[in-house]
Design brief:
The structure is a single chain. The chain has 157 residues and is α+β, with helices and mostly antiparallel strands. The chain has one domain (4-155). 23% of the residues lie in helices and 25% in strands. The strands form two sheets. A six-stranded antiparallel sheet has the order 3-8-4-5-6-7. The protein has a two-stranded antiparallel sheet with strand order 1-2. Helix 1 (4-14) crosses helix 2 (32-42).
């Protein structure tokens, strides 16, 4: 069962540095989804090591869903296995800490992935705080981001 608090604890401890057990993808398009996936693993979501699963063993032995924004989305909303991350699209008011937000900052694709690490009161762009890699931030207000589209992923594990 997903431990949201462990996932956010990992985010707090690794937001401005890189875990040496994982490759740093900053120079290959960004490390944001890789970081979010690491948080989920620390939150006790078991990796799915199947061919089209959600896993990381090394730079050359990993699934696209572990490190890619669109690939994580496609995998997580269609996953029916007992392992791997499972999500559903929700409205902003259904979000909790440890859930995922994906942003489209350049048309036409979603290109940034963040994890919710704090919510003050009822979830709104002004009360949700997120943490991420690439442009490393901890507890940044969602309303401080520029985006043309946004989607909210509720973790179901």
């Amino acid at each position: 069962m997903y431990d949201r608090y462990l996932a956010t604890y990992y985010a707090k401890n690794w937001w401005n540095k890189r875990n040496p057990n994982y490759y740093n993808f900053d120079s290959l398009g960004g490390d944001c989804t890789n970081f979010v996936s690491q948080c989920l693993v620390f939150g006790k979501i078991q990796m799915d090591t199947s061919l089209m699963g959600w896993y990381y063993k090394s730079l050359n032995d990993r699934s696209p869903a572990f490190t890619g924004v669109e690939q994580l989305f496609n995998y997580s909303i269609s996953n029916t296995k007992s392992v791997g991350v499972k999500c559903k699209l929700v409205t902003i008011d259904q979000l909790e800490i440890g859930d995922i937000i994906q942003l489209c900052q350049r048309k036409p694709v979603f290109n940034h992935c963040v994890i919710i690490t704090k919510i003050d009161n009822i979830p709104t762009p002004n009360t949700i705080f997120v943490t991420c890699h690439t442009n490393d931030v901890y507890n940044k207000k969602l309303s401080d981001y520029f985006y043309t589209k946004i989607r909210f992923l509720k973790i179901l594990n």
